[in-house]
Amino acid sequence: MPVFCHLPLLRNADRSKISKRKNPVSLNHYRRAGYLPEALLNFLALMGFSMPDEHEEFTLAEFVEVFELERISLGGPVFDLEKLTWLNGRYLRRLSTEDLISRLRGHLLSDAYLAQVLPLCRERIDTLEAFFEYASFFFVGEVVYDEEALRGMVPKDRTPAAVAKALGALLEQYVDPQFEWNAETVEAALRAFAEAEGWPPKDLYMTVRLAVTGRAATPPLFETLAVLGKEVCRRRLRRAAEALRAGEMPATAARGSRA
Per residue in 170-221, pLDDT tens? Predict the structure, then answer.
């Protein structure tokens, strides 16, 4: 007979509730970021349960063998991303070279993913080696915003705070899990947002381009966003907004309007 048990809500390090509007909560995000399923399962088990001998690394079979309802913690567990990353590293380093290659080819280096990325890049590179530099933002988790990129996100007539607020509002457009993510729907959503918020579309597109890729020159924007996927784009838009809030530049340092 199945037994259902309601566990406490997971919380951030500051004890606030984890929110899909502010935090990556989709399993697709953690899969794309390279967290191993077995490590994530181990970590989530630790969020509400402790092993009798208190050790933190265990398999699903070991967990099932000793599981007791009485050992479930009723406190609000903290979703410690640093600990998850540490635990994932432990699992990853135990993989054989062959298994590690297989995991890498499972998504980021899969033929299916490369088949989406290459058509966007092939007309913009002259050597095979150049592909890795030009297309790097398709394969990393976070992109680096240098001073030029941060300045470039801010149109001439706006402030960093206003742009950060706009990026936050744009994120709301993509919270709905029913939002179908492809080049056409993303373009329509960006155009509608620009019109509703009074942004010239070209200004909004450049801000989003820099926020998501860290570069002003990239493959076509909407196709790039489609290939990166909703979770990655939301994550980077959120990070860009945080970067703008953390290091606001004077309005005079913002980029000029583009013709």
Answer: 988 877 777 889 999 999 999 999 999 999 999 999 999 999 999 999 999 9
Q: Note the pLDDT tens digit of each residue in 48-82.
A: 888 888 788 988 898 888 888 777 777 778 888 88
Active-site residue identified among 20, 22, 156, 202: 20
pLDDT 10s digits, 83-123: 999 999 999 999 999 999 999 999 889 999 999 999 999 99
Write out the two tokens for 72.
Answer: 């479930």
Long-range contacts at 226-230 (CB < 8 A, ≥ 24 apart): 226/181, 226/182, 226/183, 226/186, 227/113, 227/116, 227/117, 227/120, 227/138, 228/137, 228/138, 229/28, 229/32, 229/181, 230/174, 230/179, 230/181
Predicted model pTM: 0.81
Q: State the chain's mean pLDDT as an integer.
A: 87
> What residues contact residue 135 under an 8 Å CB cut-off, 6+ apart?
117, 120, 121
Active site (annotated) includes residue 20: yes
In contact, 160 and 246? CB cutoff 8 Å: no
CB 137 within 8 A of CB 214: yes
**Which amino acid appears at position 250 of this protein?**
P
Cα–Cα distance, 259 to 247 (Å, whole number)? 27
Per DSSP, helices labelled H in 74-182 are: 81-93, 97-105, 111-121, 128-134, 147-152, 160-173
What's the maximum distance between 2 C-alpha atoms anywhere in the chain?
Answer: 68
